[in-house]
Amino acid sequence: MTQLQLSDTEKMIEFAIAQAHTLNVTVNIAIVDTAGHLIAFQRMDGALVGAIDIAIKKAYTAALFQKPTHELGERSLPGQPLFGIESSNGGLITFAGGLPITFSENENVEKVCIGAIGVSGSTIENDLSIAKAALRL
Amino acid sequence: MTQLQLSDTEKMIEFAIAQAHTLNVTVNIAIVDTAGHLIAFQRMDGALVGAIDIAIKKAYTAALFQKPTHELGERSLPGQPLFGIESSNGGLITFAGGLPITFSENENVEKVCIGAIGVSGSTIENDLSIAKAALRL
Amino acid sequence: MTQLQLSDTEKMIEFAIAQAHTLNVTVNIAIVDTAGHLIAFQRMDGALVGAIDIAIKKAYTAALFQKPTHELGERSLPGQPLFGIESSNGGLITFAGGLPITFSENENVEKVCIGAIGVSGSTIENDLSIAKAALRL
Amino acid sequence: MTQLQLSDTEKMIEFAIAQAHTLNVTVNIAIVDTAGHLIAFQRMDGALVGAIDIAIKKAYTAALFQKPTHELGERSLPGQPLFGIESSNGGLITFAGGLPITFSENENVEKVCIGAIGVSGSTIENDLSIAKAALRL
């Protein structure tokens, strides 16, 4: 299986920070492998200290479930099928800002998840916008 | 950056306890630096033992997110943007009683967060009232 | 049973800080009740951040076992009867700087433990000296 | 107080990776602020997954105690003054590879700790050599 390389994460973080500058916010950015283990992390100067762990947990959550964190969030509201899922796996974050990173050799092959990114420190809209920018989505 | 000194915390705790006496309640009071590390703590005689950890976590939460804990609480209700945030950072407390401590050299300079206070042991209304009194808000 | 009051801790911390000034060091000082629950804590400006938790755990350890932490330490070395005890109770600290606080109505009555103090941030000799000064030992 | 900037960490990590290449090993590199909060992290391709947490904890330990991790390690052996310290603060790592990052405006001013670096994934000799290279020591 194709694996995310450290060199891949540098461009992603560069794109993320460029988008954060455009939005005039400061965030934490975490990138993990398919197992949820950290590959790279950067805290922009002045970004919220409380959002370090959230960025890492968003990436971790998106990797472990191979889904955007906000999709898990919709399904884990009271009354929904996955209510309470956030207490599993040592603690998940299920609001927006975590996205799986996918890859396919060519357009005839289905994309596979090769890791995930998590962004935290601004509004969830900005966090998600920055995560998307990192992946050129 | 200006840092909160131990001597600053003494007056804050004195004001807090005075307000607790006015309200005829007993509480725990914790003050942390911007990183969430404890600077000072006092438990009034008879204050709830279960509220020790809550006072410390309220201060920790307000410092890490530079926001009153109840503002995080409103935004972390089911269906709100930050639902589930309380499981991050080793456990947050997102109900009222935690406030950031801010400071500016003079009124022309924007205030910066230099720490936070957390109060717990009575109702959330009283806890918040005591936290505000500590900061003369 | 006589209980440690918040007002008692103020003098103890005052004596501790005076001794720290004499030794020209900065430390964290924690005082707990007989159950190990925090009553008061102060971090002197510049004291080691890593020693906050250690001061609290020294007080906690001395209270739970009603012994100076260094006595437990001697008995928990490899080959000694209590080897490994430090992993109990959510984590103990068994080196010098934690002392039980004892009290008796008069000299004909045996002293009872009413709480404990923990000091951390300097050498263990200084930490213990400061803890003793706090209790006028 | 001078604070470590994200841009400072980029060169440190670059130097670290250059040294890792020289030694023909792969490691994890973590950089934290004085409070122990993560600023930057990189895992070289192929570096041990179990060493991610160790690199972060080495940096955290060196920051919280403003000392190289191996100095704490020497002092926490059985019979030494700080035996058992590693169970404090949520878990420390006290073998080589964590170093405080110090700074002074000029040579007439005493250096202050502005953060710490932790390296893990190879032998402790290589990990320390890489941490030193990162700081040009």
TrEMBL record, chains A, B, C, D:
Pfam families: HbpS-like (PF03928). Gene3D superfamilies: Haem-degrading domain. PANTHER family: PROTEIN GLCG, SLR1406 PROTEIN. This is Heme-binding protein. The lineage of its organism: Bacteria, Pseudomonadati, Pseudomonadota, Gammaproteobacteria, Alteromonadales.
